[in-house]
Structures are given as C-alpha cells and as structure tokens.
C-alpha cells in the first residue's frame, strides 16, 4: 500500500514512516507544511493519505483543507486524518456528502499500533474509521431524541457501528453472537428511523453519522 504522510511534528512524522515501512507499506512522500500537501497528493496519487489537521503556516486547518481539495480532484482518494483533540466541525466536514474512504483518529491512537494499522487499512479499502472519542462527542450532542430510547446494549452497538466496525468485530468486542448483533442493529435502525442495510456496511455507518450530525 502506497501512503503519503503530512505531519509537521518531525518525531511523529518519522515514527509514522518507520511504522508503515516496517509493516510492509511504501511511503511515497512526506509533507511538513500545508502548502506541500495538495501537490504531493496529486503527484503520487497514493492508496491512502495520512494527514494532520493543523499544519504550518497557520496551524489552523491546513491539513484538512488540503485533504478536501485533493478529494475534489481525486474523489476516490482515501484519507485518514489525525488530530490532537476531538474537533467535531472538522470531523463533520470530512465525513459530509456521503464520503467513502475516510477516517478521523486522535494522535494518541497511533501508539496503539494494531488499532492504527487496522483503521488505515479499513480506510484504504473504502471504509470508515472514527475514533471512539469522536463518536462519544457526537453522541453526547444529541438530547431529547430517539437516542434516549436505546438500551445500553443498543447504544454500545451504535458506537461500534459509527466507528466503522462490521458485525463480526462488534460481536467479538461485545462477546455475543453475530445473530444478537444483527438483532440489536435492527432495533437501532428502527428506533432511529434509518433504513437497515447489512449488505452495505459503509452505507450503514454513513447513515448513522448523518443522523448523529443532524
């Protein structure tokens, strides 16, 4: 898998390069400032881009803006965004419009190597990977709505769905059968008024995210 990395912190940037190359991936290019990102992505057209949200010169949203601009010209470009904190506006903008192949992780997640690599591969394959803390923030914004009618189990299933996990992974995480997960998902969709679609896991995640961001 060919990867482009955009990260201004030299230690983290080199750590990502080492992690990815030692895991059998190719780092096609690296960027340390916002203006470098878009030309680099257009030149290399990687299988996935790993981008910091805030980069020089302004340390505001240069990385995210570059990611959005790149996806306008390369609509199928998978993008995994890294951020120091949960920034809901950025997450919502990246995930808006029925986007495929997107992820939003906190930088602390990089230290959990297996989780990070799993998220990266999921995004590269066209799926979705949301940091659990981002999902929690989105859930906590909703008040006095159908989310209140979910049981603790259904809410746990919803959080895992929104992170991008499939039924098998959810079942293993909750130590239940896939049949039980299927039933919980049906109840969640029914209570939230969302169309069920077990055949399209990504569409399922986007439906949930659209609801949470409404």
From TrEMBL:
Pfam families: GerE, Response_reg. The keyword 4Fe-4S does not apply. Residues 143-214 form the HTH luxR-type domain. It comes from the Bacteria. Residues 2-122 form the Response regulatory domain. Keywords: DNA-binding, Phosphoprotein, Transcription, Transcription regulation. The modification 4-aspartylphosphate is found at residue 52. Transmembrane segments: none annotated. The keyword Zinc does not apply. This is Response regulator. It comes from Streptomyces flavochromogenes.
